[in-house]
From TrEMBL:
Protein name as catalogued: Glutathione S-transferase
The organism of origin for this protein: Sphingomonas metalli
Pfam family, one: GST_N_3
PANTHER family, alphabetized: GLUTATHIONE S-TRANSFERASE GSTA, GLUTATHIONE S-TRANSFERASE-RELATED
Signal peptide start-end: none
UniProt lineage: Bacteria, Pseudomonadati, Pseudomonadota, Alphaproteobacteria, Sphingomonadales
Amino acid sequence: MWQLYQFPICPFSRKVRLVLGEKGVGYELVRESPWTRRDEFVDMNPAGQTPVMVDAGRGVVLIDSQAIVEYFEETVDKAVTINGTAAGRAEIRRLTSWFDMQFYRDVTGPLLHERLIKRIAHRVTPDARALREAMKGAVGHLDYTDYLLDHRQWLGGATMSLADLTAAAHISVADYLGGIDWKGHEQTARWYRGLKSRPSFRPLLAERMELVGPPSHYDNPDF
Ligand SMILES: N[C@@H](CCC(=O)N[C@@H](CS)C(=O)NCC(=O)O)C(=O)O
């Protein structure tokens, strides 16, 4: 049985969980708080980052969300998430990387640092300026997803793909942390409502971190 080392609002773990959910791969959750740098976890992943997936029975350890999802793309036929032509797959990979790098740098990373890690690990209050910057960054990113969805049915093209699951993973964490102002982003909100109602998404929306809760609209599939 696979075990996934993660914490509930890690966007990279959510990306993996959405892919596993779509593909119907079973796994057990193991709670890990990477900011504590637990020795046994750092021994397993020298980067000390979540997610990590382990199949102890077969001696397989997978590290890094992209490496993990590509492993399951290669080994599970159901629900291909990097699909289409070579050019189409390149576009899916570009957008996946866009959310994992740029969106994380501008939005998810600062929000996690300010609202969660500072509170839980350092017991200090968030920096209001950094929070404002992250929320401003989210507006710019959602303007871009609105633009993409004006031209395509899904972010990466005509069918749902890893680009959508990755974007939704990051946006869901930013939304949990109160960093998304949905006003004026109807295209993205409509797309996100569709993803939120998928069976792969529902368990994620039900989970909570200690000390830091989401706004009331967060798990409403119609919002
Ligand atoms: N490239 C990695 C990034 C993983 C990552 O940054 N995870 C965060 C939690 S969401 C983490 O463990 N941060 C702790 C650290 O970087 O020390 C992936 O895609 O898995």
